[in-house]
Amino acid sequence: MSEFVHSVTLDKSICHGCTRCVKRCPTEAIRVHDGVAHILTERCIDCGECIRQCPHHAKKANYDSPELLKNYDLTIALPAPALYGQFNNLEDTDLVLNALKAYGFDRVFEVSAAAELVSDATRHLMKAAADEMKPFISSACPAVVRLIRVRFPNLIDRVLPLIAPAELAARLARQKAVEETGIAPERIGVFFISPCPAKVTAVKMPIGSARSEIDGVLAIKDLYPKLCSLMKTAGDEPLSHAGRIGVSWASSGGESSGLVSVDNYLAADGIENVIRVLEDLEDEKLHDLAFVELNACAGGCVGGVLTVENPYIARAKLAKLRRYMPVSENHLPGSIPPQMLWDTDLEYLPVLELGSTRRERFERYAQLEELRALLPDLDCGACGAPTCAALAEDIVRGYNTLDNCPFLMRKRMQELQSATDETTPEENP
């Protein structure tokens, strides 16, 4: 479907059809046909799990080239907090920020500074809605928000309607640059330095906003080696305006800890753990919690596939970096400004439904159950679908046939062989 834009892509020329990605995709968005994987774009949430799992590097993330910087009169870098966790013995974030300017950016605006404002806004919203449905779910991870949108529609109302820190940073940075320089907004290029493909997609196909203020997304792994060398000779201009709370957003639990007065929260990372938590939320098992922070990547944003450091080592580096930081450098002056709130509602995307009408769904569901009864329920993946239930669904949708189940085919061959053996020579000329 052309309306879907994704960062995660597949290079079929080097795909071996091994089904590892098929088994690990949280929305069952991948199938293998004729020895090659295929991505069902309407189901993909760009979590990057298939990129992690592919031993042949056939899954890749698309993002922008630094060459785009040449298209603007003034450029602004938005470094994600996870960027700081990539460097050894980093004691001052100004080293990284000055290296970004040495790389070619005219200005820098820390996403961690915007994250502190989002933490403040979250506290305001939770206080104002204290008597409403709990727990509230963070909207910071775009892969999780998209997962809820397609697989857990009953939880949509619990997602906090706040834009992500990177988007807020882009809006604030552009506004400030226009006021201080007088340059037209369209001549200012705002570039987010991202740890994961889901954030790339969040810019190309925003949720909660009609359009993104970010003009390009660069990968941490591409800039990292260049920044390492530039840090040795970059200037020492004081550029950092974020504290411990903002930098903590880089790893799992950081956003929750930034709520300060809220201690009944849950923080989970890794897409499989996220799904378990969402299932428990749907079953009303976690009603005693006030806030739930979910990160699709293991360890949080430091575990994104566009980073270079082991996520747990990066977390340790960030813990050391935060030690002497102020708690927070950014606060809302009063109520939540409108630019921090979603301007479009989060809506259910029924890509997993079996039909457009209730009657069609009931009929197809009955057909699905009949097919599932025929299948061995082994979930081997040999048919190219992740589970027997997924194969039955594909058959109902017309994407596959029972002939692709090797166990059913073997059973039929055995029955045919038995029938042949029982036939007399006279009956079988």
Structure description:
The protein is α/β, with parallel strands linked by helices and 429 residues long. The chain has 3 domains: 1-61, Alpha-Beta Plaits (2-Layer Sandwich); 66-340, no CATH class; 355-429, Orthogonal Bundle (3-methyladenine DNA Glycosylase II, Chain A, domain 3). Helix content is 37%, strand content 10%. It has 15 helices and 11 strands. The strands form 4 sheets. It has a 4-stranded parallel β-sheet, sandwiched between helices. A 3-stranded parallel β-sheet has the order 7-11-10, covered by helices on one side. α3 (94-103) packs across α8 (220-230), α4 packs across α6 and α13 (358-374) packs across α14. The termini are far apart.
Offer a quick outline of the entry:
With 429 residues, the chain is α/β, with parallel strands linked by helices.
